[in-house]
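During the second half of the funding period, the structural biology subgroup turned its attention to how the target accommodates small molecules. The most pressing case was zinc ion, which had performed well in the primary screen but for which no bound structure existed. We therefore specified the complex as follows and requested a full 3D prediction, including the ligand pose.
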Amino acid sequence: MKTSILEMSAGLADTVGQVAETAGYLWQKGWAERNGGNITVNVTEYIDDDIRKLPAISPLLPAGTVLPHLKGCWFYCKGTQKRMRDLARDPMANGSVIRITEDCAHYEIVADSPVAPTSELPSHLAVHDYLIAKGSPYRASLHTHPIGLVALSHCSRFLGKDVATRLLWSMIPETKAFCPRGLGIVPYMLPGSVELAGATIEAIDDDYDVVMWEKHGVFAVDTDIMSAFDQVDVLEKSAQIYIAGRNMGFEPEGMTDVQMREISDVFGLPK
Ligand code: 13P
Ligand code: ZN
């Protein structure tokens, strides 16, 4: 007898395994208090005909908005109110696999148990819809609460366009190399709201892979969940270096514009 959908697809099992590993890192980093943060991954490519035949285990649930490019798409989603540290051990008891229905406005839970998806589903699905529409290879999205980056967002001086990006890039060469689009800024909005979802897409469309939700957390996209995590990790490393300098009583100098341009040239960075 089948016990988990993960036994039906090696690709799905591997992807959910990566989500669980990442969830463990989020907890270890101190970015995932209680149920803080959420992860979704578009897993449609791993869904075969047998999985498509599985019955829904929930009623049709409203997606909150219409997602024209997600018809019939499948997602692994962290469960709402579930802890990252628990998901790390047991991803299918702390998250679920859902499919978007034909009307592009609802979803249903298919496996393994009826765990309701994250309250930030509007932002996650809106961003996945945007990525598919654009032909992007990105399949993973991550929302998390990194302490240093959230702290920066409490100071209006860092909220101007690309002010935080330049500061963070200038702390250590790797940050620009591995988060080459920098940090977009989304002004404070109610968590879980459709408005926050819209503003997040706008920021991602402004060519950021990572956006700051002011006084709340970051939202990151990439090809897979490990890569999305890495982009946040390098930004947070820079925030910690900046904070360490300030704690030692000085304003960190930062790399010069010439040094940062050299990084762009050598790594062939997008902007
Ligand atoms: P969920 O538990 O619903 O995923 O919410 C966590 C969170 O960080 C909301 O912004
Ligand atoms: Zn949050």
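Two results from this model are relevant to the next phase. The beta strands are 38-42, 61-62, 74-78, 95-100, 106-111, 140-144, 183-186, 210-213, 217-222. Residues 189 and 196 are 6 Å apart (CA to CA).
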